[in-house]
Records
---
Amino acid sequence: METGASSGTGSFPAEDGEIWVPVLSDPLDGGSNSPTQAEIEVYSAYLDYDAMDFQAVLEGPQDEHDIGKLFGGAMFTSCCARSPTYIKEANLTHEIECELYSPTSDHGMIQTLAPASPETKEIRGRRISAPATALPEKEEAPVTMALGGGGEEDKKRKGGGKGHPLPCHRRSMRLALAATPLEMGACATFIVDLLDYMPKSGWRHRSRVRSARKRGIWSLNTEQTFLLPNHLGDMSSTCKGKKCGHRKNNDHWTYEEMKKLVDALYISGVGNWTKLKHENFSTSVRTAMNLKDKWRNLKKAYTGNAKKKILPTLDKACVEKIQKLASKMKLHL
DNA sequence: ATTAGGG
DNA sequence: CCCTAAT
């Protein structure tokens, strides 16, 4: 399972503001079926997950031919999220804009825009064939790549690259999935989904993962960061319905949803979650219990000696409603 | 079947 | 978000 440098030695320390997300095992690297054991740990408090604009950065093979595969699924390597600030300061030059779509589920895991080339490619000395699944022809997914200069930045970060062997995903091409604000959620969900698709047993420190995720600042210490969509599919079907790790729904609450919930509660009062669900969230993925839980969290977040407000800033009016509702409930106790 | 609370 | 005791 564990291979070489991945034994918790922090092979690839992330930079401040960097989030490395491990995917599944590298099917080309021995343990084809066993998920890679990866650790995610909080690396820095540089970023605020909830507030940051997600930028998914992929690093992979050198030539643009591989881009298709990278996205198309043949050899998705790793995904890294950074703050826009970081992106800017680091002066990343290899960028590719694309939108996310999911080949395996309707609200997606892997996205791409560049058509996956069905050819076979030599990767890390091994031969693999790209999946036949070509990407849907999304014309609007402009593949904008700026070349030149990126290598430098890489070296800088690697500090010369001595010590650990250069992992595949460090191989330099750096692609940035520029997520627009609207797609930000998709990116975030994408990343989180990947984590959830990791079977529990595949993680050595699930609790740490969850904890880190909660705080939203992750870094990955692992060498195995390959992902093949088909494997992902297998994994998901294997686990589905078997309490095998991932959660049913990872849609992060949007501002709109929160506002809607608060407004509804403000009118109908707190409680009667089932009724609330049917009357206000009948088409939503949120269950009555979800609504209940969300309210509890909102209340906790915006009430009294609450700790730092992690939530995205809700507008004043909304916050006031939350606080009023919260205090109103106190009186009833 | 729902809800309240803890995890 | 999940789990479960209590309703």
---
Amino acid sequence: MARDATPRLPRRSNPSSDRAGSDGRVGNLILRSLPRKESSQLFPLMEFVRLKLHQVLHEPGEVIRSGYFLNDGLGSLLTTHPDGKTVEVALTGREGFIGLPVIFGFKTSALRVVTQGEGTAYRVEVDSLLRILSQCPELETQLQRFSMVLGMQSTQLAACNRLHDVAERLARWLLMSHDRIGMDALPLTQEFLAQMLGTRRASVTGAAGSLQKAGSIEYSRGRVRIVNRGKLEEEACDCYAAIERQKKRWQEEAN
Amino acid sequence: MARDATPRLPRRSNPSSDRAGSDGRVGNLILRSLPRKESSQLFPLMEFVRLKLHQVLHEPGEVIRSGYFLNDGLGSLLTTHPDGKTVEVALTGREGFIGLPVIFGFKTSALRVVTQGEGTAYRVEVDSLLRILSQCPELETQLQRFSMVLGMQSTQLAACNRLHDVAERLARWLLMSHDRIGMDALPLTQEFLAQMLGTRRASVTGAAGSLQKAGSIEYSRGRVRIVNRGKLEEEACDCYAAIERQKKRWQEEAN
DNA sequence: ATACATGTGTGCGTCTGAGTACATACAAGC
DNA sequence: GCTTGTATGTACTCAGACGCACACATGTAT
């Protein structure tokens, strides 16, 4: 299969992208939508950070110290269980914010949040954010709406987990990731996917194998490459489309 | 088994409870928590309504015209699928509000909402609610926090649907209902439970049978009676406890 | 009393996926 | 080169649940 030559941490050598704080390069859609009046209050409080692969941002039951506006890369929200099992219940990229409970006055996270792929984010201390939030109505609105969208996503996934088999869910998951990560090659091991889908690694082998046989994806040793997105959409359950449909509808409805 | 004599719509003959708008009898916890300044604005806009069994309050994709503050009874939020399958993704009673998307500026519902058991609610037209919402900060806060709590619930159910078997989920569901409906006898058919749990009716027969054999419940022809709640808690998966735990924690954290 | 609708018990055959285990393939370091 | 750790392929048994179908029970209506 075609291998892409992306090394582990290649962009360390490109310092220019480290200084994205000066606006033009902001990837996060919430930040980009803010009026100058609000972003000029918010940006001085934030720090541009680089996120590593599988970095844990929040842990269930622990106090949330920082929120994150992702610019690129991807955050998975997982439930954790005593026996070590995990299930992904929501997924967000640059369209969202990580740390929603604090917006509503709660201090702890109910979920584990881990990054997938490398990425960058603007990190903000919760105290700082809350201090300016009441003076930033547009930011507040955006965050609240995003929380509703994310909630809708998780309800759809709740149903998906009940009704659909591993291959459908895997295809659905790849599509959701693909949308957010913006590249065809994703750094994914079967073990990681098993944790996302709440299933066995061996089941992922089977599902990924059949997707590859169908020509939707190619993969090898921790790299998945999407080669035929259209086909992948056919193989995914309708949950992917349902989420996108509702998101779009709400976007249009919100004045 | 012991039958309770509750007829279908018995309380029609008790007009006094129809006029619960004058405060003392308000069951909804959000309404009860409001300062007089806000409730005096809100109550004139609302209508006390009686909800029938399995009444559909919202339908996915349709515009939400009214919101509901339940006083008693129970609302199930379901995803619907083209083939008629449904899965419950969240459950609320008098602690909440039905119609959350409108709070965030969205107009349509993503989910079907159906009542379970009979109940009463304060119904409010969306337009009216939105008109006063900005002048009712406490109401706004309560609604937003509730939306977060409900979202957390649905994430836990997403995992539950993936990891736990029918009997555990049934026990969990009965506990959640029991908490909210406040009676030991619930009007539930196996067919209805199957739709809530997203499974076959026959699977419910099996699960309910084993719960009855264990002495946790008794049931017959559309009536389930919880006879040993402690035992039921043992048989449920940890998801029930996890939801309650997090809810309580957040309640304490919110100043 | 009879007929009917509704609710429940049960019995197939089939299949997905869980749990587990082990073998192979590849990559990086010595 | 060789070793080691990680990633993947595969095989096996078993339990749970699926789809389907039908019989029986119970309460209501005529």
